What does this fold into?
Amino acid sequence: MSVPDPRITSLLRRDLATAGTFTAVMWLAMLFVAVVVVRTAPGTTLRLVLFLSMLALALLNTASMGALIRRYWSERIIIYREDLRNLDLARQATEEGVADE
It folds into this structure.
């Protein structure tokens, strides 16, 4: 599927980079929380339950981000075409407003 506007590819790359960054930061935060929980939670069973819960949460969030990325990639023209149209209209209105002054 060819992309008619190169700005679509640029917007998609930016959104994919943002999604990847958020996922990496989320994993770092979960790792930090896991370390703190291991140090402070009373009892091995509670530590294990909390750690497994955090791991499940992180895996589900990562899977949802993967689904979002796949969806954006497959529907990129539909998703970004309207955004670009609105940006073009806003830019045109701004230019017309500046030209009128």
Observations:
- Residues 6-100 form one domain.
- Residues 6-40 form the longest helix (35 residues).
- The chain has one domain: 6-100.
